[in-house]
Design goal:
heterodimer, A: alpha/beta, two-stranded antiparallel ribbon, 10 helices, 14% strand, B: mainly alpha, two-stranded antiparallel sheet, 43% helix, 5% strand, globular
């Protein structure tokens, strides 16, 4: 495939057939309708911005996470040291807290997980028994920031967003970070083979057949939409919401079947089918993570999606890192006291492992040239956690780390210490603005103040 | 050990059955010490659900009682009836029965969200782009295969012998009645005719039919169990379900699949308008092998059996576990199947039988004798599962089966906490709360000089821990004869004998000291609370929601019927189709709030 760094961005719909023949489809750079702002639009010569949110569970070890030194002359900590190759593209953010997650139903892990990207209280409900004195809770109470962004910047791509998981067990509020809206969790796909099929399966079909198929699918889905539209008015409010959400999801798929929109970047290199591994087997944790990251990078490179989440395990994860020589589960270890040096060292090792996974992702992104820069430069990779600290279940001082400038939006290579009580709503809305949305607050309005302009310099 | 400053206020509400069993608020909880123990994760962390309580919960000792509450006779109490989308399993079963397709397309759908331990809860099952894509692809593949392989079943006419529109109409009204589990409305027939006529010129007869069938397989009337109910004639906000809606409820409860022709016919002629008519059909469905699968689907989830697949053990300590896993799962499934359908049929036996269904390998594992007459002349490894008597001084029903003992244990050791928790939550319906922050929850390390009981002594020595662990550990420690694999051991080692005495606390009717796990099993097998919990679990599964205040009457009626049948499980299933919750629903008010019970 063409890979000319000077080529710039040309969003020609570009499909490769089974015989490897490239077929250009109608030029669509002028397609730009809807409420999204200019900078999020794919334009001739401008590379699109991408967002990846990576999750790891159970908090961190603050003393081994915090960099040493000042804003620009910092030295990376034992946990973050694997990210050293990307030091100049880093934003280490200390002190931002999930203030909303101290309110509403749910225990520490639940509120942390369900509010991590939604920044609103969980729904009331008896569905999940919380820990400690927390009573019970329902699912998250609002849309997550990745989905809010994808609703806007995902309009032009084959997939609005991509939710990837690595050995995510359970299907409860403890295990979901992305939400279409209140009470609508999105399950992550944990099987790399299934991800490959969904994202790249089409690439083996001849362009003519593909066109024909997409037109047929669009006709069918148009009629399916009619079925939902006819039923919805007959239902009560509660059930109506459910079917409305389904109807909306059909529209998302149907819209993408307009042949002008289905396309890939000129830069696209279709990856090979991932090697088949028992993807839920604990011993394959790292290998499956790499497969997912490889697929993710290809999907971003091909511009098949611009928004993705990558979820390692789940809150309260008890993954046993035998590959790191550890015998105890992560969650058990995370409850050990601060004075247990051995446990703190093991937790440091685990968090350092996750930093090295992030480093792998960034490395792969930086290998894709886009103009004079790389895919990493046009991406924001944010690492999130449902807790600040495991043994206290604290939702204060979440160890946020970001890599990538998001198309020059962020001023990177910095270690920033935020004032206490800086709400994570503001970090999330900053991401929205970085991705070209114009919204000025996100989530619970009691906390949301506005974007963290300091991240821009 | 110093207590954490401040005291936790515990709010342990979360009524299981309003008015029946409730975890009521407790005033104060001892502050949690930084060094306390609370064993929380299972061997492999298959579920992120924290698993220890550290709040003092008190069980209200008011089971549903012998007298039907007065308000039950004056007002219908169906409780809410939220719209339910087919689960992956239901989808697969349905297309098997609708199209003869056994390719399990639902397995490619996203994972099912789990609420209250079941995959079919109406809550939290949002539809994302990926669902729509998978439904679309599944519909394409299903229709392509069906038209290629079973054309005459789908298209009952030849479009060359009659007007194409007439043949199309015959096709989709027949298919529609099965797919939507009711006859098409005249509005729908007109709509599909119009679609067909619009598609015919470009797609041809087969092409247009295929597209229409795909539309129907993605329609909400197929993917959801839509219920509009009969009109609310007396204005009490409660509606009877239509016959077809009832047929759908019955078949998804008892078969996990669509109604068959007979059930639809019964609905059509009004046979489901009475409880007796419903019971007749329920009994007929229970005779079909499909009911066996559906029952297993419930029991697998109730007993947390899917955990086996993702449970891994330290190969140095339990070298044979990896090779036993599939067998252990089969054992429990065959055992349930046998008790319910071929054996005694009752819950008591399920929880206390001194036999199991084993193959020769498992018979060895249990130290039991595989019947010599069984499959004589066959190589031992080819001999199948059959009923094998177990030592009644070692085993009692599901409680002591190795599938359950090994999933409720750790990677390298047993877990009295996980086993106690299993009994509390799954068997007694007493949800426990996970540990609060600032608690050390690492299980104590293995120590060649200490028994498990000794290593876990801190739970009872420390006032802070004991408040809650007395609900789990005194039950869980009785299971210490079963190692992390579930294999019987006389002692932990040559120098470490096992003390399996314990105590059951905080139940309605099973409190008191116990000598061993067998006494726990037998006492709980006879306990009213266990029985009502089993009913509650079935109710959650049947209705896709938790029991609420409005269900007091429903649960009362179920307990009466269950008791009258001497705790027969099939009879409980019939009774589940007889309740007000099953036969009625809140009247649908378009655009309005949810009616009764919300």
């Amino acid at each position: 495939m063409k890979n000319d760094p000077k080529a710039g961005w040309s969003r020609r719909a570009f499909l490769r057939g089974a015989g490897g023949v490239a077929v250009g489809l109608p030029f669509m750079a002028s397609l730009g309708v809807g409420p999204f702002s200019k900078s999020a639009r794919a334009e001739e010569g401008v590379f699109p911005k991408r967002l990846v949110i990576m999750f790891s569970p159970n908090g961190t070890v603050k003393d081994n996470w915090r960099p040493f030194g000042g804003e620009t002359n910092f030295t990376l900590s034992p946990i973050l040291e694997p990210l050293a190759p990307f030091r100049e593209k880093l934003l280490v953010m200390e002190g931002i807290s999930m203030l909303t997650a101290k309110y509403g139903p749910g225990d520490g892990h639940q509120t942390g997980m369900g509010q991590m990207l939604t920044a609103v209280e969980l729904l009331e409900g008896d569905l999940f028994q919380g820990g400690g004195d927390s009573g019970t809770a329902g699912w998250a109470g609002g849309i997550s920031v990745d989905q809010a962004i994808a609703n806007v910047v995902g309009k032009d791509t084959k997939l609005k967003s991509l939710e990837l998981g690595v050995q995510v067990h359970g299907a409860t509020v403890w295990s979901r970070m992305s939400y279409l809206g209140p009470n609508q969790p999105i399950p992550p796909e944990c099987d790399p083979a299934a991800v490959f099929g969904r994202v790249f399966g089409d690439m083996s079909i001849s362009p003519a057949d593909l066109l024909k198929r997409e037109r047929r699918r669009k006709s069918v889905l148009d009629l399916v939409l009619g079925e939902y539209a006819t039923l919805v008015p007959k239902l009560d409010r509660f059930d109506r919401e459910k079917l409305d959400a389904h109807l909306q999801a059909i529209r998302e798929v149907e819209k993408r079947l307009q042949t002008e929109v289905v396309g890939v970047s000129e830069n696209c290199v279709v990856p090979g089918q991932p090697q088949v591994l028992p993807h839920m087997e604990p011993g394959n944790y790292e290998a499956v993570g790499r497969q997912q990251m490889d697929l993710l990078v290809s999907a971003l490179q091909c511009d098949l999606t611009r928004v993705a989440t990558l979820q390692f395990s789940h809150s309260v994860s008890g993954h046993v890192f035998t590959n790191l020589g550890l015998g105890q589960g992560h969650h058990d270890l995370s409850h050990e006291g601060d004075s247990n040096a051995d446990a703190q060292q093991k937790l440091t090792t685990i968090n350092r492992f996750y930093a090295s996974q992030m480093a792998y992702l960034c490395q792969r992104l930086s290998e894709v040239k886009e103009g004079d820069e790389t895919l990493l430069d046009h991406t924001a990779v944010l690492w999130v956690n449902e807790l600040g600290k495991g043994n206290s279940h604290s939702r204060d001082e979440i160890p946020y780390v970001m890599v990538g400038g998001c198309g020059g939006y962020f001023k990177t290579g910095r270690y920033l210490r935020f004032l206490p009580q800086t709400p994570h709503n503001d970090l999330l809305v900053t991401l929205m603005q970085a991705m070209g949305l114009e919204q000025t607050t996100f989530g619970d309005r009691r906390f949301a103040r506005g974007p963290l302009d300091i991240l821009r310099g | 050990m110093s207590a954490r400053p401040g005291r936790l206020r515990a709010v342990c509400h979360g009524a299981l059955l309003a008015g029946a069993l409730a975890l009521v608020a407790c005033d104060e909880t001892p502050a949690a010490p930084p060094g306390g123990f609370a064993d929380t994760q299972d061997a492999t962390d298959t579920t992120p659900e924290p698993d220890t309580l550290l709040v003092d919960t008190v069980v209200d000792t008011t089971p549903s009682g012998p007298v039907r509450p007065e308000h039950c006779t004056t007002k219908l109490s169906p409780g809410p009836a939220p719209l339910r989308r087919l689960t992956k399993t239901e989808y697969d079963n349905t297309v098997r029965d609708l199209l003869g397709d056994t390719s399990h397309p639902g397995q490619a759908f996203p994972p099912e969200e789990q609420t209250l331990g079941f995959d079919n809860n109406a809550s939290g099952r949002g539809v994302a782009q990926v669902h729509v894509e998978r439904y679309m692809i599944a519909a394409e593949n299903l229709v392509r295969t069906a038209l290629a392989e079973r054309r005459e079943q789908i298209i009952p006419c030849d479009p060359n012998d009659m007007p194409a529109l007439l043949c199309a109409r015959m096709t989709f009204s027949r298919f529609g009645k099965l797919a939507y589990r009711r006859p098409l409305t005249s509005e729908e027939e007109a709509r599909y005719e119009a679609y067909f006529e619009a598609l015919l010129p470009t797609e041809g007869f087969d092409g247009a039919i295929a597209m229409l069938l795909e539309v129907m397989l993605q329609s909400p009337h197929f993917l959801y169990r839509t219920e509009l109910g009969e009109p609310d004639t007396d204005g009490d906000g409660v509606s009877a379900l239509t016959g077809f809606e009832l047929a759908t409820r019955i078949s998804y409860l008892l078969w996990g699949s669509m109604p068959d022709d007979k059930l639809l016919a019964a609905a059509e002629v009004g046979l489901l308008a009475t409880p007796e008519g419903i019971a007749t059909e329920a009994r007929r469905l229970l005779k079909d092998p499909k009911a066996r699968d559906a029952l297993l689907h419930f029991h697998r989830q109730w007993l947390e059996l899917p955990k086996l697949e993702t449970t891994f053990k330290d190969a140095e300590i339990f070298p044979d576990f990896a090779g036993l896993k599939d067998r252990l799962e089969t054992e429990t499934e065959r055992f349930i199947d046998h008790v319910v359908w071929d054996g005694e049929g009752d819950l008591t036996t399920l929880l206390s039988a001194s036999y199991s269904i084993l193959d020769p390998v498992l018979a060895d594992f249990y130290g039991a004798t595989y019947p010599a007459t069984e499959s004589e002349g066959t190589l031992p490894e080819r001999r199948g599962f059959t009923k094998v008597d177990l030592d009644p001084s070692q085993r009692a029903g599901l409680f002591t089966q190795a599938s359950i003992m090994s999933t409720h244990a750790k990677y390298n050791q047993t877990s009295p906490v996980l086993r106690g928790k299993f009994v509390r939550e799954q068997i007694l319906c007493q949800p426990l709360q996970p540990p609060p922050a600032n608690i050390n929850i690492t299980p104590p390390d293995l120590d060649p000089n200490l028994t498990t009981r000794e290593r876990f002594r801190q739970h009872s020595d420390s006032d802070e821990c004991a408040g809650c662990h007395k609900k789990m550990d005194p039950i869980g420690l009785t299971f210490e004869h079963y190692d992390g694999n579930g294999r019987w051991r006389d002692a932990e080692s040559a120098t470490l004998p096992i003390d399996v005495t314990g105590e059951i606390l905080f139940t309605w009717d099973a409190n008191g000291p116990v000598a061993d796990a067998l006494e726990v099993a037998h006492r709980l097998a006879e306990s009213e609370q266990t029985r009502e919990c089993y009913v509650t679990q079935w109710f959650r599964y049947a209705h896709g929601r938790d029991t609420g205040f409005a269900d007091e009457c429903n649960v009362f009626d179920l307990m009466q019927a269950f008791s009258a049948s001497n705790w027969n499980i099939k009879e409980l299933l019939v009774a589940l189709t007889q309740t007000e919750a099953f036969r009625f629903r809140p009247t649908v008010v378009p655009g309005g709030g949810v009616g009764v019970g919300e």
